[in-house]
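COURSE: Structural Biology Practicum
ASSIGNMENT: Worksheet 4, Part C
STUDENT ID: 0417
INSTRUCTIONS: Below are two proteins. For each, the amino acid sequence is given first, followed by its structure token string. Answer the questions at the end about the second protein only.

PROTEIN I
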Amino acid sequence: MNATIKITQRMLNKSIIDANKSVVELFSRNLAHRGYVNIDNGAKQVVRAVYDDGSGYTETEIRLYRRPRGDKLLSIKGLSKRAEVGDVVTIEYDDKIGAVVRVEPFKFILRNEEVIE
């Protein structure tokens, strides 16, 4: 199971991302003892993670938060240096290395199906 997030300017400016259903489900399935269910309102947990650079991994961390009113949020350390508006971030969980973060560039698709990056 993967979690996917389409990056917006707000996410890059504030370094905070609203946790969508796929993010909540990913961490609930793979980190039952550390998922959002076990985070008190106003608290956070840090999850070990790596960026998949295509030819290797770079260590990072994902912070799972709950606002005092209960909203579920996350931040990914170093994301603003790797992603742009419109990119899609995919997170999957590997039992051996933790959360794996991939950043896929946004692509425009023209009518004749030619892809421009």
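PROTEIN II
(use this one for the questions)
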Amino acid sequence: MALTGKLIYKGLDIDNAHLKVMRIEHRAVDSSTTAEDGTVTWTKANHADYSARVYKDAAAYAANPDSAVYTISGTFTPSVANTANLNIVKQTYEHIKTLADYDELTDC
């Protein structure tokens, strides 16, 4: 699984860019709030931290996965709803496609 399409990096066109997610870490964070009456309420938040590499094209990735043009990283809140696709890798690619620089990329 990867994304492909045209990207612009530092003013240079990359016509057949190949974006490959390389790392995803899922975190569950518990936090508490205390009301004025002393009642403590706990909540859980899910986070997914990721990094992805962008290559000149799929052939460049296949020839040497360490030859990325650049790397991106970020965090998003994965869905755990019963109707959601619970595949964290798929959710990461879907998240990346919501970012302005990558919203024209397609699955490949």
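ANSWER KEY EXCERPT:
Q1: Strands lie at 3-9, 12-34, 40-55, 70-76, 106-107.
Q2: The chain is about 15% helix and 50% strand.
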